[in-house]
């Protein structure tokens, strides 16, 4: 093997210092972090070795061996995860509910209902909406999502933004077996406030439903609750291609409304089951 010349031992970026590092991807020699960053910018190099690049036998070394080993090991792990997921899917498919009757009912009501048959989705697994033969009516799952105490920043209440998705793990309360004729105020006072037959999600010691419900605000003498639904708006963004853009906004609802009116509200898209957002302050 030919000995390296003094020039070849220097940094290829500044050429002033001996090199300390060699790029795994392009093998350019550098002496410092600044030179390393400059080489990435100048050569558009990611600094990550191509795992599937061809290596000649005479240049194949232990570093190449480790890289190949980790590549194959990673493929094995992903295949194992995929097999477990497929096994889980097969078990779930055996108890997959038939939603054809629910979809027909939604069409009769004029609802915009979006359903999925994949039980891998958490929202689908939580949904217990069903038809009750003894009551001869549909019983719905209803979700309440609670906003934090503080008012949101401007970007959170911007009508053109999807403000719901900017909430970080809000407290949720799920009610099951809710009739379409049920009154929102009655559901709130008799079941949510009293925690009668409800499931609470994302509750923690520092973020509990009791703290949210009973906490005091300087601006109020007694707790006030404001109810909203999220509606979807579509606007023509490109007339030549007939493409539409979607935006989300909130709409306040009266406390004396019924579940049926919420289900059939204009522009209200129901994903599996209806969601009502609750805030202690006006937003």
Automatic annotation (TrEMBL):
PROSITE patterns: ZF_HIT. Residues 11-45 form the HIT-type domain. One of its GO terms (biological process) is ribosome biogenesis. SUPFAM superfamilies: HIT/MYND zinc finger-like (SSF144232). It comes from the Eukaryota. Keywords: Isopeptide bond, Metal-binding, Phosphoprotein, Ribosome biogenesis, Ubl conjugation, Zinc, Zinc-finger. InterPro entries: BCD1 (IPR051639), BCD1_alpha/beta (IPR057721), Znf_HIT (IPR007529). GO terms for molecular function: zinc ion binding. Interacts with FBL, SNU13, NOP58, NUFIP1, RUVBL1, RUVBL2 and TAF9. Interacts (via HIT-type zinc finger) with the RUVBL1/RUVBL2 complex in the presence of ADP. Belongs to the BCD1 family. PANTHER family: BOX C_D SNORNA PROTEIN 1, BOX C_D SNORNA PROTEIN 1-RELATED. Required for box C/D snoRNAs accumulation involved in snoRNA processing, snoRNA transport to the nucleolus and ribosome biogenesis. This is Box C/D snoRNA protein 1. The gene is ZNHIT6.
């Amino acid at each position: 093997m030919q000995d390296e010349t003094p020039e070849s031992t220097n940094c290829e970026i500044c050429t002033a210092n001996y090199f300390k590092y060699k790029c795994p991807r392009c093998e350019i020699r550098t002496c410092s972090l600044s030179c390393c960053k400059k080489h990435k910018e100048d050569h558009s190099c990611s600094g990550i070795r191509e795992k599937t690049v061809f290596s000649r036998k005479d240049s194949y070394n232990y570093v190449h061996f480790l890289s190949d080993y980790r590549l194959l090991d990673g493929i094995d792990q992903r295949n194992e995860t995929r097999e477990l997921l497929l096994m889980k899917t097969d078990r779930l498919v055996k108890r997959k509910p038939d939603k054809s009757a629910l979809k027909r009912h939604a069409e009769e009501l004029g609802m915009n209902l979006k359903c999925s048959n994949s039980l891998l989705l958490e929202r689908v697994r939580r949904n217990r909406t069903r038809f009750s033969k003894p009551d001869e009516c549909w019983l719905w799952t209803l979700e309440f999502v609670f906003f934090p105490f503080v008012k949101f920043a401007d970007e959170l209440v911007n009508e053109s933004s999807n403000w719901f998705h900017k909430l970080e793990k809000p407290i949720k309360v799920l009610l099951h077996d809710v009739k379409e004729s049920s009154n929102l105020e009655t559901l709130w006072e008799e079941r949510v406030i009293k925690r009668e037959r409800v499931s609470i999600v994302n509750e923690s010691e520092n973020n509990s439903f009791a703290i949210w419900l009973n906490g005091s605000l300087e601006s109020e003498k007694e707790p006030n609750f404001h109810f909203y639904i999220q509606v979807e708006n579509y606007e023509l963004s490109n007339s030549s291609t007939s493409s539409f853009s979607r935006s989300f906004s909130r709409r306040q609802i009266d406390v004396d409304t019924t579940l049926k009116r919420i289900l059939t509200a204009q522009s209200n898209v129901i994903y599996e089951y209806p969601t009502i957002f609750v805030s202690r302050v006006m937003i």
